[in-house]
Sequence to fold (431 residues):
Amino acid sequence: MTSSSVLPLLTIMAALLAPAVASGQSASPDYRNSTLTGDWKGRRSALAARGVLFRGDYVGEAMGVVDGGYGETGARYTQQLRLGLDLDMATLAGWKGGAVHLTLNDRRGRSASADLVGNRFPIQEAYGGQYTRLSELSYDQTSGDGASYVKLGYYPMGNQFGLHSLLTHFINAAFCAHPLAMSGNSGWYNYPVARWGGEVARQIGPEWNLRAGWFQVNPALGGTVVRTAFRPFASGTTGSLYPVEVTWLPGKGGAHEGVYKFGGYYDSSRVERRGLDASPTTGRHGAYVLAEQRLTHEAGDASRGLTAFAQYMVSDTDTAQIRRWYALGGVYQGIGGRAQDSIALGYVGADINRRLVDARRAVLAGAQVPPASPLYRLSQAEELFELSYSVQVNPWLMIRPDVQYIVNPGTFAYTRTDNAWALGVQAKVTF
Fold:
C-alpha cells in the first residue's frame, strides 16, 4: 500500500460506515476552521457525531548542512503522511469510555544526518522507516471518571511512555519527543513503529499517576524491514519489555504547573554485551527523569509564558550504546501579538558507552595503528544545540524555521567529524 492509496481507502470506509452507525451525542470538532480539508460539506461532522472520527496530518522537513560534517554542503527533504480513524464505542455500541484506533503512516525522503553529517541525532525527526506501514490498531478503555485507563493492541508504546510532548517544538529527533537512549539501548520503540502490548494507568492521588505495561520486543517489526509493514504477527520476537512510569503534576491547573515523570524499564531479550567482552547476557534496563516546569505566565493570557524542561537518563553498562543522556532548555509561547507562536531553545548530550570506545581502540591497536595517531582521540559524547521559531499561520498550518549546531557528530561512528551547522524549515498541515 502506498500513500496515494490511503486517502481513497479511508473515504470508502467512511461511505460504508455512514449508514451503519446510529446517531449519538458526541461533540463534533470544528473541522471547517481547524483543518485544511474542512467539513466535507457537513459529512465529516455528521460522522463524528455518530462516533466515527477521521484525522490526518502531513509533516515536511527541509534541512540543509551549511558547514562541517562530511565537508559537503547540501539539503535533504523528508516527509510524513499520517491518516487515522477513531471509533467512539460509547456512541457506536454503548461501551462507555471505549475507543478503537487505526493509524496508517507513510514516510518518504532523504536524511541530512545520514548523507551529510553522520551523527547519531537525526536532524529531521520525520526520517526513519521510509515506507507505508500500519502504526496502530488498538482499543482503550477509560473508567472511573478518567481515574483508570487500559489499552491493548498493536501500537507505538512511546505514545504513552517516556513522552515529552513539550519538545515537539523542535525538529531534531533527539528532542522530539523522547530521549533517543530509550530506543537506542533496548527494545523500546516510538512512533511510527508498532508492537503488540498493553498498559494500565491509574490516578493514585490528585497530582500523581502510575502507568505500567508489557510490550513485545521484535526487531523484525520496524526499521528498514519493509516486508513486515502490514504483518503485525511476523516472527522474530526476542523478549518482552516492561515499562513503569510515575507522573507528578505539582500545581496542576495553576499558573506554575509542572510535569515530572520518573520511569524505568526492563527488556528480557538476550543480547550481546558491549565492548571487548561480547558474550551473551540476558536483560537490558534503564531509568529516566523527564521534567517540565512553567516559570512565567501573562495575567491576561494563561497560555503565554516560559516553560523550562530537563531530561536525565542512565542505562546499564553491559548492553547500552548510550550510557548517559541529558537535556535542558525552554519554550516561550506568545510572541508579541501572536499568541500561538513560540520560540524554543534546547541542548542535549549523549555519552557513548566507554566499553565501545575501548573496543574501538583495541581494534586500532590490533591493526598496528601507531599510538600517536589521531584515530585514538575519540570523542566521548555527541551534543546538540537547537533553536526554532514556530509560526502558527492558521489553525491547520504551522511553519517552523530552525537552526542546529552539532558537536562531535562522529562520536557513535568512531570518527573525528567536524562540528556541523544545519539550517532549515518544517511545515505541519492538519487535514
About this structure: Residues 57-430 form a domain with the Porin fold (CATH 2.40.160.180).
